[in-house]
Each structure stands twice: as structure tokens, then as C-alpha cells.
């Protein structure tokens, strides 16, 4: 067993800043029979080939892969006299790698459940919750003494015995409501309610439980982190956030205890665009902009049948990693089962990780510098049932895809931290359908507009307060320049908006008099001087076919646009344009979103890419230069993987705005590794990119 003093790695690695150089991660999740069968030398070779500088390795929880001395901590029955966890920790430290121990407390074996029934999660009918996938084992109560006491002992034992920098908790936050006696008593004491028996988000009992759960998990993370630091002051407990948003957590605990964050969205599932990896990273960064974020990528398919011991195609693996790099995420790959029945994943992972190693010296120190932000509507999403929350994101997805097609760099900004300071980083913010906003959040946006900021908003944005109560009018009516005439209608058919005059927002529709409108609409009327590039056409029957014609001429606001006294611009679209575009992908709605954003921006976009293809773009800057990442999405499998092959594109012309006070010294293409000529005109640098296979990074260095 490796002792602390035996570690051959340089002491300089074991500092509170260890995470800053942990930028390429190998994760190995052991299965129970690995100790007898796996080859440590294979994994050492993978560390080297991928230039990994950090490892996340299974240690304990459901199964221990080291000789644990804690009663009821189940140790792999195949371990014998070996120590698979300790062996690879030692090998990683020889390579000066950072080490994080993975624990998974979500299930226990029958002997532990029998000895401590209070550790087991109970169903709504107060029966022990047997594991849904593995009969004979039981799901634990995340809010009980199992986590607060037993798992604390496990975490401390690992930190005491092994040379690690952190512990990583997987499936640590529970699986819904637990109906055990402790949860009943603790929740009632905190809220006065009995436990909720349904997950209806509008139910005040459910809202109270969600808040109690956040508070309990906040205490748990703080408790585990503090216990780790008692043993190793430089180390941290890092909770797996599972998804792509921090809305389920108390931000104070993240700020204090989590120096590094990870997106556990390991690959595409069903119909999902290739830019999803970058989107999830942006959503994590929407709250903590300068905190490093890693993207966990599976080497296997991520479909519901969970073929976890299979292998994804090489182009799909590489593109998922590249999508993260484009948006400033460092790569992490995960392999379940240390034995290798199919090694086709190794070279693609090595390719992607080596590309990151090539570009990291430039973009690793940079921050995103987009002038556009989509508001991540955490306040709204909390008012949706967890199993239906994805429906609330359809409007955001539509706006996201429209901006990707328009090749506009942008970030997310969480409405949990909206303030004059955080909003001031952007020239334009987008509220795709932020239905629930507090008075304070509305005021922050109002102040942003008063300071010259621009807004593009749609549908029911600000019609409810943060507690769910409907307002009589938009909370941002004065910003939009319109008032609500009648409540929102859903299930609308044959809805259209008509082009009205000539305006930058209605350009590009040559030959059209009208385009598709919303399936959900809000009737509004102006309360100040506005421009109306589109007028609403009252909807009409869609059957019988003989009845399919408009009864009334265009009337009412289809799109409202205005220039503010402070010089900014506001566009409000009173229907669900994002959802309509995302669901049906008609290009007219994507064009309308792009036109509205470009007009509201009030200036030439800071980057422009000319040439055929579809690209996700990420702009990064520091005092030394600016880097534009171009991810090539052009592929027949762009919206549903896996990719079969890559489809190179080019040539492209890239124009980048030069920040005030800067001048260009050089231009390089980092992936192809070549200096390129550049032209300067109108305070912009123009560079030619001959071709892109998977991705390219255009790097301008300042004098």
C-alpha cells in the first residue's frame, strides 16, 4: 500500500492550486473482477499516449478497490492480496500526474442494508428501494447517516492512506424523494410539511422539498470537503454535478468548496446536435465564469440501453472532445472496465487529447470574450417538473442553434447571478423564454438597458415572478415597449407573421409576404414608440382545407423593435420562436432570430466567418491576444450521431475585430501549426483558413 511519504512525485504538485494544471484527465472506473484481470502497464501507456496529467480512479463506496478496514465497506471479492487502486495511484504519481479518488455511495450490499436499515432509501409506500438494475442490492438514502457518517469514514480512510489531491463523488446526491423516518422528521422540522408524494413543480410542498434537499446536500459537500482537508489541507471533495447547470445547488458551497467543475454529459443520445458538449460547458460557466470546467467524454455510446463496455466511433469521440475545447473546456475521458475487449477508442482519444495539448499553451490562460449572452433561466427551470424540464429548454435550444448557424460567439449568464456587474460584460443579452423572473432580476435587466445594453426577448419572459405568481403584465413591459392585451394562448395553429415594410430584421425573405408564427402566442400592444418589422396575422382554421385562409389582415405586433434613450436596442417577439425553430427547423425562424440579434447588437459582429459549412465558434481573449476556435460541424450526422467520418471544409475567410488599443503582431493557425498572413482594415484583421478537418484555432497575437 502506498504511504504518503513514499510518493515519488514532486512535492510542488501537492498545493491548493493543483487543479490549475490538471487539464487532461483519464478516468478508469473499475468493475469488480478487474483486480484479477487488468494490466496496469496498459493504463500507464494510455496515460502517456494521451498526455494525461490527471487521473480519476475508482476507490470505494459501493465497492472498495483497496483493502479497506471499515466494517461493512464491501471490498471486491477478487482483490486477493492486491491493491489495484494503490497500484495505479503510484504509477500516476511517477508521471507527476494529479490524482482524484472516485467514490460512489448510491448503493449498498444486502449485509449492510440488513445491519443498518436506516441507510436504505424507502419508496413512497415505505418499502426498501431495491436497485433498479441490480437485484439484491439497495439504493441508499443520500440525506442519512450513510453519507454523513459511514461515507465520511470511507473518504477519510482513502485520504489518509493514499497520495491524492481530491475525492470525486459520483451518484452521491440521491435518487428523488426518500420516505425514511429520518427524512420525514428532518423535512417536517425544516418546512412544516409532510414529504411530497408527487413531483409537481408548482406544488409548494415539492418546492419546499427541493429547497430542503439543496440545503442538505450543501451541508454534505461542505462536511466531506472539510473532513478531507483535515487530512490533506491542499485537497478537495469534488461533487459530480451530473448535468450541465448548477441550479440544483447552493452557489455558496460551490464557490467555497469546489475549485474545479465538471460536466458529466458524456456523449450524444438519440437526436442531439454535435454542439451540445460546448453548450453544457457554457451553462456551468454561466455561474462561475473563471472557474476551470472539464468535459467528461465516454469512449462508448451513451444511449439508454447503456452499452458501457462498447466503443464509440473515432470521429464521434474526437468531435465531442473538440466541441468542449472550442468552448474552453478541458478534456476528460472515462472508461468502464479496466480490461480491454475493444481498443479502437485509444487512438481517437490520444488524437483529441494531443490536439488539446497543442492549443492549451494559448487558450488555456484565456477567458471567453463574447459580447452576446443567453440568460440561463434557472429561476424558470425550477418551476418545471424534473422529468419535464427538458421541455422548458426548447426555446433556449432554438436560440442556441440559430446563433450557431449565424456563426456568432456567445456565452450563457445564469439569472442566479444577474447584476449590473455581470451583465456589463456583454453588449447584448437574450431571454429566450425566461418566464419566471423576480423584481430584482427585472431591475437588473432594466438597469442594463438604461446603461446602453441591448436585449432580445421572446414569449412569456417576465410574466411570472420568482415564486410562480402570474403578473398582470410583463415585469419588463417598459423594456419591451409593449403591454400584454390578453393572456398567452397555446395550441395555436395556422399562425403567421407578415413582413411589414423594410427593416434589417425582415431582410432575407425575398419573395415572401409572411412566414410561420408561433404555436403559443401572447397578444401585445405598444406603450411607447416601436418599430414593427413583422405584424401578427390572426390565426385561422387548418381544416377543412376549404377553410384554410386568413379572415383578417395583418394586425397587432408580430415583432417589436425599439432603440432606447441610452443607445441600446430591444427586440421583443411575442411568441415561442425558439421552440418553433428548434422543433421544426424551418430556416425562416432561424433567420429571424439571427437578424434580431444582429440588429440589436447595433454594430458589426466581432467575428465573421465566410465560406461554406456549419461551425460552432468560441472566442477567447487575454492581454496577449485573441483566439477563435472553429469546430467543423459540417456532417450528415450533425444532428444525430455517431459520426462515420469527418467532412473537411474550406477555404474560409475569418474577420476578427481588434480591441481598442491593440495592434496585431502575428497570426497563426494553431491546429495546422502555421503562421498565416493577415490584412488590417477598419480595425479588423482578416485571415484565410485553407481548410478544416475537425477544428482550427485562429490566434492573433498583439504587439
UniProtKB/TrEMBL annotation:
Entries under InterPro entries matching the protein: Beta_galactosidase_Trimer (IPR013738), Class_I_gatase-like (IPR029062), GH (IPR017853), GHL6 (IPR028212)
Spans through the membrane: none
Start and end residues of each Beta-galactosidase trimerisation domain: 398-484
Protein name as catalogued: Family 10 glycosylhydrolase
Organism encoding this protein: Devosia neptuniae
Lineage: Bacteria, Pseudomonadati, Pseudomonadota, Alphaproteobacteria, Hyphomicrobiales
Amino acid at each position: 500500500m502506498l504511504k504518503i511519504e513514499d510518493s515519488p512525485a514532486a512535492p510542488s504538485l501537492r498545493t491548493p492550486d493543483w487543479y490549475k494544471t490538471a487539464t487532461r484527465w483519464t478516468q478508469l472506473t473499475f468493475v469488480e473482477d478487474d483486480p484479477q484481470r487488468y494490466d496496469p502497464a496498459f493504463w500507464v501507456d494510455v496515460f502517456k499516449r494521451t498526455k494525461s496529467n490527471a487521473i480519476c480512479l475508482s476507490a470505494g463506496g459501493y465497492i472498495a478497490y483497496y483493502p479497506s478496514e471499515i466494517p461493512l465497506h464491501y471490498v471486491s471479492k477478487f482483490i486477493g492480496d492486491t491493491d489495484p487502486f494503490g497500484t495505479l495511484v503510484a504509477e500516476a504519481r511517477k508521471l507527476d500526474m494529479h490524482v482524484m479518488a472516485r467514490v460512489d455511495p448510491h448503493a449498498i450490499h444486502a449485509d449492510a442494508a440488513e445491519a443498518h436499515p436506516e441507510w436504505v432509501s424507502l419508496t413512497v409506500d415505505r418499502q426498501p428501494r431495491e436497485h433498479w438494475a441490480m437485484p439484491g442490492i439497495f439504493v441508499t438514502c443520500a440525506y442519512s447517516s450513510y453519507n454523513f457518517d459511514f461515507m465520511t469514514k470511507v473518504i477519510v480512510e482513502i485520504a489518509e492512506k493514499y497520495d491524492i489531491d481530491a475525492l470525486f463523488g459520483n451518484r452521491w446526491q440521491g435518487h428523488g424523494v426518500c420516505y425514511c423516518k429520518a427524512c420525514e422528521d428532518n423535512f417536517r422540522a425544516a418546512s412544516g410539511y409532510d414529504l411530497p408524494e408527487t413531483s409537481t413543480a408548482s406544488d409548494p410542498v415539492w418546492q419546499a422539498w427541493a429547497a430542503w434537499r439543496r440545503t442538505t446536500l450543501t451541508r454534505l459537500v461542505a462536511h466531506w470537503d472539510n473532513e478531507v482537508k483535515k487530512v490533506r489541507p491542499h485537497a478537495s471533495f469534488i461533487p459530480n454535478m451530473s448535468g450541465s447547470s448548477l441550479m440544483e445547488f447552493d452557489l455558496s458551497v460551490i464557490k467555497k468548496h469546489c475549485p474545479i467543475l465538471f460536466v458529466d454529459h458524456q456523449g450524444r443520445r438519440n437526436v442531439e446536435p454535435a454542439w451540445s458538449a460546448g453548450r453544457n460547458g457554457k451553462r456551468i460557466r454561466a455561474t462561475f465564469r473563471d472557474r476551470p470546467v472539464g468535459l467528461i467524454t465516454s469512449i462508448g455510446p451513451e444511449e439508454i440501453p447503456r452499452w458501457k463496455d462498447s466503443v464509440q466511433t473515432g470521429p464521434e469521440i474526437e468531435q465531442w472532445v473538440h466541441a468542449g475545447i472550442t468552448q474552453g473546456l478541458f478534456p476528460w475521458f472515462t472508461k468502464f472496465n479496466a480490461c480491454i475487449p475493444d481498443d479502437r477508442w485509444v487512438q481517437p482519444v490520444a488524437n483529441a487529447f494531443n490536439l488539446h495539448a497543442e492549443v492549451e499553451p494559448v487558450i488555456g490562460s484565456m477567458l471567453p470574450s463574447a459580447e452576446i449572452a443567453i440568460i440561463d433561466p434557472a429561476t424558470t427551470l425550477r418551476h418545471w417538473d424534473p422529468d419535464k424540464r427538458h421541455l422548458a429548454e426548447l426555446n433556449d435550444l432554438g436560440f442556441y442553434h440559430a446563433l450557431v448557424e449565424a456563426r456568432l460567439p456567445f456565452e450563457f449568464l445564469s439569472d442566479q447571478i444577474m447584476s449590473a456587474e455581470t451583465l456589463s460584460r456583454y453588449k447584448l443579452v437574450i431571454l429566450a423564454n425566461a418566464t419566471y423572473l423576480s423584481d430584482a432580476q427585472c431591475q437588473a435587466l432594466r438597469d442594463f438597458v438604461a446603461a446602453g445594453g441591448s436585449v432580445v426577448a421572446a414569449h412569456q419572459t417576465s410574466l411570472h415572478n420568482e415564486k410562480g405568481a402570474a403578473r398582470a403584465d410583463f415585469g419588463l413591459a417598459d423594456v419591451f415597449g409593449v403591454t400584454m392585451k390578453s393572456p398567452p394562448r397555446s395550441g395555436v395553429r395556422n399562425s403567421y407573421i407578415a413582413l411589414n415594410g423594410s427593416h434589417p430584421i425582415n431582410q432575407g425573405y425575398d419573395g415572401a409576404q409572411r412566414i410561420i408564427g408561433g404555436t403559443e402566442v401572447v397578444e401585445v400592444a405598444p406603450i411607447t414608440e416601436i418599430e414593427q418589422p413583422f405584424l401578427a396575422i390572426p390565426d385561422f382554421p387548418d381544416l377543412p382545407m376549404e377553410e384554410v385562409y386568413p379572415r383578417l389582415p395583418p394586425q397587432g405586433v408580430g415583432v417589436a423593435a425599439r432603440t432606447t434613450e441610452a443607445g441600446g436596442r430591444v427586440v421583443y417577439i411575442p411568441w415561442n420562436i425558439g421552440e418553433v425553430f428548434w422543433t421544426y427547423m424551418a430556416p425562416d425562424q432561424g433567420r429571424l432570430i439571427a437578424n434580431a440579434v444582429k440588429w440589436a447588437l447595433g454594430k458589426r459582429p466581432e467575428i465573421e466567418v465566410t465560406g461554406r459549412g456549419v461551425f460552432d465558434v468560441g472566442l477567447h481573449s487575454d492581454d496577449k491576444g485573441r483566439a477563435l476556435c472553429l469546430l467543423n460541424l459540417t456532417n450528415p450526422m450533425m444532428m444525430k450521431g455517431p459520426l462515420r467520418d469527418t467532412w473537411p471544409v474550406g477555404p474560409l475567410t475569418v474577420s476578427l475585430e481588434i480591441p481598442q488599443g491593440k495592434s496585431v503582431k502575428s497570426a497563426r493557425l494553431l491546429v495546422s501549426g502555421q503562421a498565416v498572413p493577415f490584412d488590417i482594415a477598419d480595425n479588423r484583421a482578416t485571415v484565410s483558413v485553407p481548410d478544416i478537418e475537425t477544428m482550427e484555432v485562429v490566434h492573433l497575437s498583439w504587439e
